[in-house]
Structures are given as structure tokens and as C-alpha cells.
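Let's do one together. I've listed all components of the complex below, 1044 residues spread over three lines.
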Amino acid sequence: MFIRNAWYIAAWADEVGPQPLARTILGDALVLFRDHEGRVGALEDRCCHRGTPLRFGEVVEGGLQCGYHGLVFDGSGACVSIPGQTKIPAKACVRSYPIVEKDEFLWIWMGEASEADTSKILDYPFHNDHAKWPHKHTVYHIAAGYELMVDNLMDLTHLAYVHKSTIGGSNAKIHVNAQMKVTPKDTGLHYLRWMLDCDAPPTYKKAVSFKGHVDRWQEFEFIAPSSVVQWSGALDVGRGAQDRRDQDGGFSLRLFHGLTPETESSCFYFWSTCNGYRQDEPEATEQLFAEIANAFTEDKAIVEAQQASLSVTGEDRLVDIVSDAARIHMRRTLQRMQAGESAVASSA
Amino acid sequence: MFIRNAWYIAAWADEVGPQPLARTILGDALVLFRDHEGRVGALEDRCCHRGTPLRFGEVVEGGLQCGYHGLVFDGSGACVSIPGQTKIPAKACVRSYPIVEKDEFLWIWMGEASEADTSKILDYPFHNDHAKWPHKHTVYHIAAGYELMVDNLMDLTHLAYVHKSTIGGSNAKIHVNAQMKVTPKDTGLHYLRWMLDCDAPPTYKKAVSFKGHVDRWQEFEFIAPSSVVQWSGALDVGRGAQDRRDQDGGFSLRLFHGLTPETESSCFYFWSTCNGYRQDEPEATEQLFAEIANAFTEDKAIVEAQQASLSVTGEDRLVDIVSDAARIHMRRTLQRMQAGESAVASSA
Amino acid sequence: MFIRNAWYIAAWADEVGPQPLARTILGDALVLFRDHEGRVGALEDRCCHRGTPLRFGEVVEGGLQCGYHGLVFDGSGACVSIPGQTKIPAKACVRSYPIVEKDEFLWIWMGEASEADTSKILDYPFHNDHAKWPHKHTVYHIAAGYELMVDNLMDLTHLAYVHKSTIGGSNAKIHVNAQMKVTPKDTGLHYLRWMLDCDAPPTYKKAVSFKGHVDRWQEFEFIAPSSVVQWSGALDVGRGAQDRRDQDGGFSLRLFHGLTPETESSCFYFWSTCNGYRQDEPEATEQLFAEIANAFTEDKAIVEAQQASLSVTGEDRLVDIVSDAARIHMRRTLQRMQAGESAVASSA
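Okay, and this is what the predicted structure of the assembly comes out as:
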């Protein structure tokens, strides 16, 4: 059961150009397109004439034209042209979805259109600050439910086992013994993790030079149902990392993690990397992106295997451990949202 | 639910030689073979001993021999030899199907064998007239129900969108505004479409030379449940196309379209091209075949996408348009045939 | 329904080294590993923390460590370490299976652990006699139920049709007219087949030189539920093959066939070849293995096609023939074992 009354990332804004883009979101087959005025539309990917997917069509004056018999639909889903006839029946239409372009994302509302409040879309100003936060983005298809990907981001002890050679480093104890503080918030939760006086991981060392041991932090905010905003970094020991003021010469990155359900057991992982160092060197941006891409490919492999296993065995006989604290809080938030939607649905 | 009491094309006659050919028709797994006397047999593709598919066997004296333990079956499905024993139990047999070779086709009857009346098989004499109608044929596997492929042939407005660069041409209005006359027939329906004083499409221009605009016709006959016979052509304006007498120097082709259900959502598309021009130039025959092959690959792509969509969503909320006239008539004919078979089945 | 209270081959002993090996047996997803002391363990392939397959883990001091969050399990399935916490909950464990290394095999018990009696594991001393019986082994994945593979070994008339060019030879009558004696045993059945004064098949002729016709035997023992031990050979006519004493210069091989169910419709085929001739020539061992590999690839193809057919049509309307005698006896043995397990299960 999906949480439908929420904003999800449908695509990166630059994914939707002259060609229609097909994407299944929360189980609904959609087509995204950009009309001649540059406005993005999100429609049911099924012509109301003979059921042909609209992704085979093309953008024409007035909207998206079906590639089979030529019907044209505008961004509201209304049919505005049927070749060979002047009268257009009222029921000739397809479902449309509210969609908003913001901070390089296309945010879509999959629930009741009347409840789509754009003020509730999270802000990510770093995507608009290319000078201070040069960045790069992509999307991964993940053969696992989005909850398992959010789980992954809520328990960072996995860095010691999954990401030994990339963002984790080979000393498991650094991660296992990290000091972590979890703070519930109205929109989700916040956590801050400190790993003091430790060796920097391979990805950090490739990016900047350290004198020796570093003080390292990971600050995460989970915004329900499926966005995670991350700020991580490290400074030489004694440089005042814990004040988080003077960061010149240190390592600092911002990662955006947006998970959008495709089906109950698959999702899209929209992520970007912003480097807060060597901002005038494009190769630093490329290098960070490449490193993170490797690390997230490691996550993808283990989480897809986890999904395949759980799809067969279910969640029986599983045991929580101490490092699950943030994960459990996150899951309870999702359960409350789902229960809320179910209650509204059953009273209606 | 299939219409079983009907003749379908099982294969092109030249597909069945010394090697057995496996093909699923109306959901039944069959094996076709040609015995030492040249007669074609159609059997259930499952040995009655241990269920092994007979397609792994070989043709021997007396019939088709199973490739596992050597049982031999003749064209009637009777077992005529069991290695190592002289007595053959009466129940040692497989189901056989009436099959007839005619006009380069192998026509098969999938219903009650006692009702298989070969006089009801349609005539296609053009396949026997190599001088006037040189031709070439093939078969496409289509991941869509046969009805969707017949639909495709009943609404030619799709030429403007699906076949822009091949048999359609880029001027959508020519197709949308074509004059079309539909005539019901006992065996199905007939329609004739005229596109007068228009530009010839790319495929036509590659085949012959025109002075300028042409008068263009498309004559189709649908013979239920799944054959469509087409005669299309074009003459220079003023050459008397509408009389359809003097066609020297014009463009004229005959296409045979035979759809045979494989499963509820897949079929075989047997088609041939006959060129009524430049009959003594083999390259003209090859060129026409290649052009049509391209066009039908375009149909295959869009119809398979349509099937994939309808398999998920069903036919709810679909809206008929004006150009659906012949399609709707054709579908009603199929529904009557299905209803007739159901009535017989339930009274039995 | 599987027979669970039995020993099956889980793997060849040399398949399980430092890397965990995942394998599904009788429908259970397992991971096999060898600990630092060289002991083999067989565990449920699912961490009790978050369900991640343990095959992504690595062997560490104490057992197998999950590759996601670092829990460690010993060969009994007990969790012996959870990173970041000292207390280990009692329910933190995974299912383990009795597993025994013997004669180059790893034998596993999939039923009630308390009934796992290692004295009931069959002996195959030839694997320990490298001088007299040099050998080589492998495992094939078969997309067919194990019963169909045992069927295959119980009716050797198939050699005339499936293995014409390898171990069978092209004269079908030799196989069809072979003298065969079937003897029931407590643990299964034994059969001996004689083909006297006949031509040797291609595989035999490649291995050794014959003067002319040979006397050829095939001795098989089926040990329920799914092991078949074979001794086959041939001597020049008149060399006393039937006494089975003087075999110098003749052809003699031992094959081990072990079938282990993966699912109801797939299995693993563990097999080895031992050559009882030219024992000091490694190329003789390689050549025999390669010949048998070809022949078993032929069996795999036909049996997988048979399974695909039976999965759709079931076993209705099948007819037994004379050569099915041993096969039918074998199937009855399996049915008795299954019935026995069902009776115990329903009384419990």
C-alpha cells in the first residue's frame, strides 16, 4: 500500500525534453512531456481511444499526440483534437497529475489533486547555488521497495561492510562506535553522527589532503515519505569540526537522496552530489560523483538481494539491533502516514 | 476465448520440410511435419508415453518418431510402432488436426474435426500466378492478440502516424480525409478508400515513376475470423484510376494478411506481397517486400505496446471515434461467431 | 512434495572454499561455507536482522559474517557477534542443516535433524581410489524435476535415440533388444543389462581398441531417493565379459549420478566419471569426461523439454510401455517414502 498524498520526484527536470518519457510511479504508468511552451505535463500513459501508450507519441501544438491514430491531449488530460471529426466527446480524456518543477526536480502528486499543496515541497537551495555547491545528478532503477533504500540510509553501520573500499573505509569499529544522536521532527527525523580522531575513508582522501587523523560528521535529515538530505564532512583533528565554522581545506559534501516507488518492490533512486571543496575544479565534481556512483552501486546490489529474499520469506523472525534506532523511527512515521490515509479512505 | 471452428493458417507450406516444426496455435502446442510421401501432418506436440515434445523427433518410415524412446506416430495421430514390443495399446495415440495445403498456405482446423469443410477455405489465386503477381512471404511473431492486429488493418488513419516514412507519407490529412465506403458481407466486410489528387507515399515512389499527384485506392476484404485481403494502388491523376482498368505504369500491390492466434495475447502474422508492376524485375519484388517488412515492423511495435497496456488496464474507459466504423463491424462479426460456438457448447 | 528425511548431495566438497556458496535445495535457500578450521556449515541464506542473504558475507573468525551490518553466525546457526552491542538476543539465529563431507561429496539432511543418521549415507569408495579409478566430476543445473532425471537413467532404450552419436551408437535394435534383469532391493533396485556380440558405441571406441564385436554390460543401482551408481563396460566377444573377471584391455567405466531437487521442477545433477582403463593417462580421464558431458547435455535438453511440456499438460493420458519396468519400480519406491513422511506428519 503506497502513501499517495505526498510529493515524489517524478524525474530530474532535464530528463523531460522534446521526447515523451514513460515512467511508472506508485504503480501508475505515466508519460511525462514538455509542451511547446516549456510546461511539463504528467498523464496516464494510455490513450483513451484504443489504450495505446502515449509514450509512442510526439509533442505537437496543443499537447501530446498519440502515435497510433493521432488524438491530442493537453497537460490537463483533456483531448483537444481527434483527426477526422470535429466533435470531441466529453469522456475523451486521460488522467493527469499535478507536477511542479523546482530545484532541478520534477515533483509529482500521486494522491487527491485537490490536496496538492506545493508549499509542502521541500526546499533544496543547493541545486541553485552552482558557485558554492557545484553538483551532478542521476537516477538509478532499484529492484527493491523504496522503504529498504530508506532503511539503508538510516543505519550507517553498513558503511563498514558494504562500502569498505569507497566511502566507508576498512576499520569497522569507526562506524560501529560512532556517536549518534537522533532527533524526531514533525516531517521525519534528524540525526547527527560523529567519528572523532579517526582515519579518513578512501573517497575523502582522493578529494582533499589531510595531515593525519580527522574529525568526521554525518548529518542526515529524513523528510517523509522518502527524501533524505545529507551533509557529511571531515576536518583535520583540532580544526574545530564540531563548531562547524571554519571548513577551508576540509572535506564536505551534500547528497540528496530521493526515493520514488515504482511498484511495491521497485523504486527510482534520484541522487545528486554537491562538492563543498575545490569548487572551481570540474574534475573534483566529476570525481566525487564517480565515487558515490560506485558506492551506491554497492548499496543497490545488497538491497536488491535483500528484497529478493524478503519477497520470498517475508519479515517473520527478524530481530532488531541497537543500530536500528533511526530506521525504526522512520518506519513508524511511514506507518502513521499510511494509517492516516487508510482511515480517510474507509470513512469516505 | 478462441473461435475454434474456423480455418487458420498454421504455416507457410515451405516452412514444413524434413524437420518437424513446433508451433502453438489457439493455445494448443502442435508439431507439423511432412512425411516421406510429402503429406503434411499436424499433431499434438506431446508423446503419449512420457509427455516429451515430438518436435525433438524425426520423420521416419511411417510417420514422426519421438526423439526420447522411439515411438512412431502417423498423420492421424495413431502410434504405429513402439520399440521393443509388438502390441500397441489402443490408447497409444496423440491428437491430430485436419490440415490442408492450398495456395502456398497450410490451413488448419482447430475445432470439431467433423465440421472441417475444406470448401470454406478462402481462395487466393494470386499465389499461383507468378507471372502476373510475383510475390514473397514471411511470418512475424506478434506479442499481441490477433484481434488487435485485425483492428490495425480496419482503421487506416494510422498510416498517417505509424507509417509516415514508409507506406503512409507525411501528410496526415490525406488519410484522415480519405473517402471510405464499408460494405458488410456474409463472410465479413469489404471497404474501399479513395485518396484523390494527392501526393504518393515514399514506398510507391520508390517502386514506379509518377508525373505528379495521383489518385490512390485501398480495397480491403476482411474474411472472418482473421484473414484480410488487400489491393492497393495509385495512378497519375486523370489516368482513370476509379475505373480500375488501364493500370500500365501505375502502382498496384496485393497484400495477404493472415492472423493466427498463438495465445490470448500473441499471434502469428502471415503476410505476402505481390507486385502488380515491373513483374519481370526480381528486384522490384524484393524492394516491395523490404518496404512492407519495415512498415509491418512499425505496426508490430505499436500493437505490442497497445497489448502490453491493455493486458494491465483492460478496455475500460475507452472511447470510439469516427474512423472506427470498419473495426467495430469486424469485432461484432467475431463476437457473433464466438457467441455461436458458446451456445453450441453449452447446449451439448 | 519433497522427501525430506533423506541425505542429498548439497555440493561437491571442492565447491565450498573461502567464498560462501548459495544453493537452493528442496526449496530452501541455503548458504554453504567452510570456516577457518575447515569445517563446512549449511545455513539458511537469510540474516535474522534484516533478511539479507548471507551469501554476500564473508568467513571471519567464529563463522560467517553478514555483508550488510556485520552479524556473525557459526555453523550451528547461532549468532555469535552483533557489532555495537554486547548482548545477543536468544532469538538471533538462523536455521542450520546437518552436513557431512564424505567421498568428495557434501551430503546434507533436509528433514528432522534428530533423524539424521550418517550411517545411512551411501558409500562410494571409488572416489578415494585415484590409482585404480582416476576420475573427474561436475554439476549441471537441470530445469526439470529430479524424478524425470532418474526416469531417464531407469530406461536405457533412450540411448538409441538421444545418444546416437555418443554413448548410444546408431543401431537402435542393440538397445531395444538388450537383455535386462531388474532386482528390487531394500534401498531401491538393481538392474543388469547385456548387449552381446554387438558393435561398440563411438565413446567406447575412442577410449580403447576392440578387435570387432563386443559383449557389453550396464549395471545400475538406484539408491532412493535420487542416487544412481553405474558400472558399464565392454570386452571383445569371447573374452569372458559375463564372468566379469579379466578385463585388461577392455572398456570399463563407473558413473555416479546424484540428483538433488532445487524446486519441484528443477534440480542439480552431480555426476562423476571414473575410467577403469588407461589409468596412468590423464588424457583418458579427460576424454571420457568430455564424452559423457556431451551425452548428459543431450539428456538435459530432452528432459528439460519434457518438463516444460508436463508443467503445462500434466501426466494425463500417458501410456506405459514395456521398457518402463525399472522406472515404474523406482517411482513406487519414491511414492512409498513420500507416503511414509506424510503419515508421520499427519499423526504429529
